[in-house]
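Hey, can you fold this one?
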Amino acid sequence: MARFALPRVNVPFVPTERAAWCAAGLAPVAVVIAATAPGAWVIAPLAGAALVLLVLIDALLAGAVTRWGIETPSDTEVGQPARLTAHAVFAKYHRGDVQAALEGDPRLLEQGRAVIPVPRSPEVGLWEGSITVTPTRRGSAQLGTAWLRWHGPLGLGARQVSRPLELTVRIWPDLSPVRSPDLQTFLRNAQLGLIARRIRGEGTQFEALSEYEPGMDRRRIDWKASARHTRLYARENESERNNQIVFAFDCGQAMCEPVDGLPRIDRAVSAALTCAYVALKGGDKVALFGFARRPQVMTPFIGDPRAFHRLQSAAAGLDYEAAEPNFTLALATLTARLKRRSLVVVFSDFTDPTSAELMVESLGRLVGKHLVLFVTMADAELERMTQAPPGDIATLARAVTADTLTQQRKLVLGRLRRMGIDVIEAPWDAIGTRLIDRYLTIRGNEAIG
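Sure. Predicted structure:
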């Protein structure tokens, strides 16, 4: 947390909302006086002047602020709550209401602004309050100007100070799934490279022979060795490691659309980083690749779990682009940089078969040299439209259109499967676990190397 103390700034007094309502209430009274007793018209301006005088006196009684400030986190994660705190110390005993306001980047503050109530703190002389905000996009969010307003004891007049903040809050990808107790327990219990020893029984590299026992896979029987020893022996191979895994992100228009409040690309980044963490723990190498109209990010392969922060930093640099992605250029660039067979996990989405045609063609060329896994999120909105009761013509028309789009989507995914591409389609909150399960299955089948 960074604490920024802002010095005192003198500004004119301002009326409050209560004062505005009082002025609005005096207007009908002035009309009644003018209609019933025209000679007493002077009462109306005198009442208005009295109200202005009360506003000034009330603002003077509010006192001056000697110190105030804003506390913001210097780093936070997209989709995770972040706390913003305002505090103030006044020159004398203060009784009125206190509020702080912030202006900043909409990716951190909803509609680019936020209001923080500042109640009295148990600490003598201190007023302090906070709100919780949820970042909606990755990047650097700028906080521009802060205001502090405090009312007088009557609530008619107020004083206000302001000062530019010029603060930056860095919004990183969501790593809460990586920190989850379930994943950490799984990694502690699984044999994924956490212990520096060879793991026998899987893989392609020969390790040793062991006497065959009931329950073993018969395909592991070494018939030549068994014939020499007149007993059945099975081959034990070293578990496959040092595989290359590339997580490729479509940062185009379809992936920038929100799903449950966050862009699809941010949901995909969170799932990919979780799987990347498991892969690094298992001894494999991981790289990130992002593209839209042109390639954005291509990291080198990282094999040390201690360098996981480099993947997080690279994922934070993936930009949002409201444009159609160029799959031909992106996947051709990726293929040229891969020197050996790799597992390429592509996160993308599409709306209709026409927009998906170039994607399908490009993935078809990629699958000839590499193992490709295509990951997309199920469209919950289409499912809700399809299942909605046909109460009227408009609802029925939406349901028919949604069903047509769903069937077209199934056709495209079916084409990918027939081309030999593994496909994961699941709700966004199940993508991470489904991806890890599929990765472990592929790794156990020695299908990458």
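Residues 204-238 form one domain. Let me know if you want another pass with a different chain boundary.
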